[in-house]
Design goal:
- With 396 residues, the chain is α/β, with parallel strands linked by helices.
- It folds into 2 domains: 172 residues, Rossmann fold (3-Layer(aba) Sandwich); 210 residues, CoaB-like (Rossmann fold, 3-Layer(aba) Sandwich), CATH 3.40.50.
- It has 14 helices and 19 strands.
- The protein has an 8-stranded mixed sheet with strand order 12-11-8-13-16-17-18-19, sandwiched between helices. Strands 2-1-3-4-5 form a 5-stranded parallel sheet, sandwiched between helices. Strands 6-7 form a two-stranded antiparallel sheet.
- The two termini are 24 Å apart.
- The protein binds cytidine-5'-triphosphate.
Length: 396
C-alpha cells in the first residue's frame, strides 16, 4: 500500500521525461505523496509547471534555491522511496561513482531509502560496457533496476532502451513499498460489465468500466497475493496478474464457477447483466425487419451459487450498485447471497462508481459497517482488501 508514502520522483533529461508526468499522476492516484526533482536536462524536455501541478509539492531542482539550506538531506531522509524515471546514462554513472553534482544525485547519496532506477536511452548507450558495469554496481548495492524495453526509440530507430511500461514502473514502486500481507492468499477478481448479444453486431451492456476491479487486482498483487482477473474489458492488466476473458454473463459464470474452489477470496466487482436477449439472432438484424421489441430473460445470479457453496476457508465479496436506500438494499443482498462482505456504492452520486477514477463506498459485513470516503479506486481497493483480511483474521 503506498497511500501516504513519500516518493521522491527524480526526472532526468531524456525524451521519455514526458512519461514521468503520467507516472506522477498514477502514484498520486494510488495515494502516494510525490515530491518531484527535475534535473536541468529534464526541464528541457518537459514543463516544470506540469509536474508541479500534478505532484504533492512543487518541483525542486536546485541545492541552492530552496528555502531549506540542506534540501538533499531533508529529501533523502524523509523519502520512503526514490524513483528515477527516466534515468539517463549520466545519472546512472554519477550515482554509481558516488558523485553529487545536482540536487537529484545529492539526494540519492544522502538517502537510505530504497531506490528504483528506470533507464531510458539509445541502444548503443544502454549496451555500452560502462553503462552496463554501472548498472551492475548499483544492483549489487541493492538498487532496483526496471530494465528498459525493446521498441521504437527517439529518432525512429528500433532497439532496446525504451523506458519500461508505466504499469511495470508503478507496480515496482507498489511492490517495494507494500507489506506482503496477502502473500498466503489466492484471490479471484471479476471486472467490467458483461455484453449480452442481440445479434452478431449489437449487444446490451451497462456503464461499468472495470476500473474498480482492475484497481483491486493491482492492489492485491502488490500485497503479495496470487491474483486472477476475469475481465470483460480489453485493457492491460497489472503486471503479475493472470487474466481470463469473458464477454457475456454466461461466459463469466462458466469461467468463474470452473475455478472458484481454487480461491480463498472471490471478489465479484463485475457488473453482471441481470437480463439477456432470449433469442440472440445468428445473423445481423436488418433495418427492414422493423424490430419493435426485444424479448429478454433473466440471467442466472451466480454470486448466489458462490455464497451458498462456499467452503469454510473462502471469503466471498459482492458489490451492490444502488441509486437509492444504499445500506438497506446492500444489506439485503449481503444476506440473500450469503456473502462475507458487500461493497455498496451509490452510483448516482457525483464522481462515484462506473467510469470515474474515484469511488465512495460502504463496506458491510454481517457485523460491521465502514464508510470509505470519496477516494481513488486504488485507495478504495486497499480498504476493501483490509476489510477482507480483518474478516479472515477474526474467522481463524
Ligand atoms: N451478480 C452476479 N450475477 C448476476 C447479477 C449480479 O453474480 N447475474 C453479482 C454482481 O457481480 C455483484 C452482485 O451480484 O457483485 C450485486 O449485483 P447488483 O447488480 O448490484 O445487484 P443485483 O443482485 O443484480 O440486484 P438489482 O439489480 O436488483 O439491484
Amino acid at each position: 500500500m503506498i497511500s501516504g508514502k513519500k516518493v521522491v520522483l527524480g526526472v532526468t533529461g531524456g525524451i521519455a521525461a514526458y512519461k514521468a508526468v503520467e507516472i506522477c499522476r498514477r502514484l498520486i492516484e494510488n495515494g502516494a505523496n510525490v515530491v518531484p526533482i527535475m534535473t536541468a536536462g529534464a526541464k528541457r524536455f518537459v514543463g516544470e509547471v506540469t509536474l508541479s501541478a500534478l505532484a504533492s509539492e512543487p518541483v525542486k531542482s536546485s541545492l541552492w534555491d530552496e528555502e531549506d539550506p540542506i534540501p538533499h538531506t531533508t529529501l533523502g531522509q524523509e523519502a520512503d522511496l526514490i524513483l528515477v524515471a527516466p534515468a539517463t546514462a549520466r545519472l546512472i554513472g554519477t550515482y554509481a561513482a558516488g558523485i553529487s553534482n545536482d540536487l537529484l544525485t545529492a539526494t540519492l547519496l544522502a538517502s537510505r531509502a530504497p531506490v528504483i532506477l528506470c533507464p531510458a536511452m539509445h541502444t548503443e548507450m544502454w549496451e555500452h560496457p560502462a553503462v552496463q558495469e554501472n548498472i551492475r554496481t548499483l544492483q549489487n548495492r541493492g538498487v532496483i533496476v526496471v530494465a528498459p524495453e525493446d521498441g521504437v526509440l527517439a529518432g525512429g530507430d528500433i532497439g532496446k532502451g525504451r523506458l519500461a511500461g508505466i504499469n511495470a514502473i508503478v507496480s515496482s514502486v507498489e511492490q517495494t513499498l507494500t507489506e506482503s500481507d496477502l502473500q498466503e492468499l489466492k484471490i479471484l477478481v471479476t471486472a467490467g460489465g458483461t455484453r449480452e448479444p442481440i445479434d452478431p453486431v449489437r449487444f446490451i451492456t451497462n456503464r461499468s468500466s472495470g476500473k474498480q476491479g482492475y484497481a483491486l487486482a493491482e492492489a492485491a498483487i502488490a500485497r503479495g497475493a496470487t491474483v486472477t482477473l476475469v475481465t470483460t474489458v480489453e485493457q492491460e492488466a497489472p503486471v503479475g496478474v493472470d487474466v481470463l476473458c469473458a464477454e457475456t454473463a454466461s461466459d463469466l459464470r462458466s469461467v468463474v464457477m470452473a475455478c472458484a474452489d481454487n480461491y480463498d477470496v472471490i471478489i465479484m466487482a463485475a457488473a453482471v447483466a441481470d437480463f439477456q436477449p432470449s433469442k440472440p439472432e445468428s445473423r445481423k438484424l436488418k433495418k427492414s425487419s422493423k424490430m419493435t421489441n426485444l424479448d429478454l430473460e433473466p440471467t442466472h445470479d451466480f454470486l448466489i451459487d458462490l455464497g451458498e457453496g462456499k467452503s469454510p476457508h473462502q471469503t466471498i465479496v459482492g458489490f451492490a450498485a444502488e441509486t437509492e436506500e444504499l445500506e438497506k438494499n446492500a444489506m439485503e443482498k449481503l444476506h440473500k447471497k450469503n456473502l462475507d462482505l458487500i461493497v455498496a456504492n451509490d452510483v448516482s452520486a457525483p464522481d462515484v462508481g462506473f467510469a470515474y477514477d474515484t469511488n465512495e463506498v460502504l463496506l458491510l459485513s454481517p457485523t460491521q459497517k465502514k464508510a470509505v470516503p470519496l477516494s481513488s479506486k486504488r485507495v478504495v481497493a486497499d480498504k476493501i482488501l483490509d476489510a477482507v483480511l480483518n474478516l479472515r483474521k477474526k474467522k481463524s
